[in-house]
Design brief:
six-stranded mixed beta sheet, Rossmann fold, 39% helix, binds zinc ion, four-stranded parallel beta sheet, single chain, alpha/beta, binds pyridoxal-5'-phosphate
Length: 413
C-alpha cells in the first residue's frame, strides 16, 4: 500500500507494518493507520473524484488502507443521502442542518462501512472465515457483507439484541451465538474463540481498519457539501469507533487540502451508559459503566475505542453531551415526523443531543450542523411501536371510521 506508511499505537507511538491481519500493539494500545498525504495528493483531488464512476465507499480508495489492485467484493455500501432540513434548522434556531441518513446502507446501518472493509481485508489476508462480537449492527452487517463476498462467519451477540438484527443474522446464515450476558461478556467470549480458532477478527478496536471504513461517512459529507466543512457534526457514541472514524475522515480531507477546517464533533451518549463522555467531561481516564439504556447499539459499558474517541473529541474542540432515554424516544419521533427519516434509538441519539444543546443555546445560531443517523428504525420495531400511539382501529365502514377518528381527536377534512 503506497498510500499507507504504517500502523501506529495511539498509546506508545510504536509503529508496525500495515499488514492485513494486524491487531493491537504489544503494549495493549490500539493502532491508527498513518497515511502518506504527500503521496496521496499526487493521485487524489477533486477532479479525480468528479470523474470517478464508483458510487460506493470505495470511490475514496486513495484514502483507504487497501492494496492498489484489490477489487472489493460484496454489497453496495455508502453514498447515503444527506438531507438539508430548513424546517428543523429553523425550529432549533441554527443556520443550516443536514441529516445524513446512513440507515439506508445494505444492512441498514453505518456498520456496513466497517464490515465491507473487514471483509476486504480478510480476503486480502487469505482468510475464509471472519468473526466478531457486537451489540447487533456490526454483527448483522458483517453477516450480510460476508455472505455477499462468500466468507463464513462466527458471530456473538448479547441475548438482549433486538429481533430485527437477529433475523438478519439468521437469514444471512452466520454461525450465531446469543450470549447470556452483557456486551462485555459477549466480547470476551468472542475474543477467546477467535484466539482459539484463528478466524479473521472484525472486532472494533482490535482491528484498526474498521474506523478507516467508517470514516468514509465523513469523506462523503465533505463531497456532498461541496468541500465546505460544516461547523459541527453530531455522532452517537458507544464503543467509540464511529466517532474516531468520523474525525479521521475529516482529518484526511484536511490533510490532502480538500477542506479548510475540521468540524467540531458533538459526542452524544445515553445517560445510562456514557463512559466516554464522562471521561471527556471530567478530564479523567475512562472507567467501565453499566449498560443501562434502551439504545442498545450504544450500550457499551467497556468501550474498546475509548482512546481514539476521546482524542477525536478533544482534538476537534468537540462537545460531549448525554441524553436520557426519553430524549432519545422524543428525537426518534421528531426526526421521523419532521423529515421522514426513521432511525433506531441509537441511530437518533446524535440528533437528541443536538436538540438538547440547541435548547440550551449551546450552539451558535450561525452554525452549519450535520447530524448522522447511524441505523434504521426497522431494526427494532418493538421499541418503535412502544414509542408511538396506537393506530385507530375500525371495520370497513365510513361512519365507524369517522366515529373512531373523532374519538381520537383527529379532524378529518
Ligand atoms: C455501533 C453504532 C453506533 C456507535 O458506534 P460506536 O463505534 O460503537 O461508537 C451508533 N449507532 C448505531 C446505530 C450503531 O449501530
Ligand atoms: Zn503501544
Amino acid at each position: 500500500m503506497k498510500n499507507v506508511k504504517c500502523c501506529k499505537c495511539v498509546k506508545c507511538d510504536k509503529e508496525y507494518e500495515a499488514c492485513a491481519n494486524i491487531t493491537t500493539c504489544e503494549c495493549g494500545g490500539i493502532l491508527d493507520v498513518i497515511y502518506d498525504y504527500d503521496y496521496i495528493k499526487t493521485i487524489f483531488n477533486k477532479e479525480v473524484l468528479k470523474n470517478r464512476e464508483d458510487q460506493t465507499m470505495w470511490r475514496y480508495r486513495e484514502l483507504l488502507p487497501i492494496e492498489a489492485d484489490t477489487i472489493p467484493k460484496g454489497l453496495r455500501v455508502g453514498n447515503s443521502p444527506i438531507y438539508k432540513t430548513d424546517k428543523i434548522a429553523k425550529m432549533l434556531n441554527i443556520k443550516e442542518l443536514y441529516i445524513k441518513d446512513d440507515g439506508i446502507n445494505p444492512t441498514s446501518s453505518l456498520k456496513d462501512r466497517a464490515s465491507a472493509m473487514a471483509v476486504t481485508k480478510a480476503i486480502e489476508a487469505g482468510y475464509d472465515t471472519i468473526a466478531c462480537s457486537s451489540t447487533g449492527n456490526a454483527a448483522s452487517s458483517l453477516a450480510g457483507n460476508a455472505a455477499a463476498a462468500g466468507l463464513k462467519t462466527y458471530i456473538f451477540v448479547p441475548s438482549r439484541a433486538p429481533k430485527g438484527k437477529v433475523a438478519q443474522l439468521l437469514m444471512f446464515g452466520s454461525n450465531l451465538t446469543s450470549v447470556l450476558g452483557s456486551y462485555e461478556e459477549t466480547f470476551d467470549l468472542s475474543k477467546k474463540a477467535i484466539e482459539k480458532y484463528g478466524w479473521y477478527n472484525r472486532n472494533a478496536a482490535i482491528n484498526p481498519y474498521l474506523s478507516e471504513g467508517k470514516k468514509t461517512v465523513a469523506l462523503e459529507i465533505c463531497e456532498q457539501l461541496q468541500f465546505e466543512a460544516p461547523d459541527f457534526v453530531c455522532v452517537s457514541v458507544g464503543d467509540g469507533c464511529t466517532i474516531a472514524g468520523v474525525y479521521k475522515g475529516f482529518y484526511d480531507m484536511y490533510n490532502v487540502g480538500l477542506i479548510e477546517k475540521i468540524p467540531r464533533l458533538i459526542s452524544v451518549q445515553a445517560e445510562g451508559c456514557c463512559p466516554i463522555n464522562t471521561a471527556v467531561l471530567s478530564n479523567k481516564d475512562w472507567t467501565p459503566q453499566e449498560e443501562n439504556t434502551y439504545a442498545d447499539s450504544i450500550a457499551v459499558g467497556v468501550p474498546r475505542n475509548a482512546d481514539k474517541a476521546i482524542k477525536a473529541i478533544k482534538d476537534s474542540n468537540g462537545i460531549a453531551v448525554n441524553v436520557t432515554d426519553d430524549e432519545i424516544r422524543s428525537a426518534q419521533r421528531f426526526l421521523a415526523k419532521e423529515c421522514g427519516v426513521f432511525g433506531e434509538p441509537a441511530g437518533v441519539t446524535a440528533t437528541a443531543g443536538l436538540i438538547k444543546l440547541c435548547n440550551k443555546n449551546a450552539i451558535p445560531h450561525d452554525a452549519t450542523v450535520v447530524s448522522i443517523v447511524t441505523g434504521n428504525g426497522l431494526k427494532d420495531i418493538e421499541s418503535a411501536i412502544e414509542n408511538c400511539n396506537e393506530p385507530v382501529r375500525c371495520k370497513n365502514s365510513l361512519p365507524e371510521f369517522e366515529a373512531a377518528m373523532k374519538e381520537h381527536n383527529i379532524i378529518v377534512k
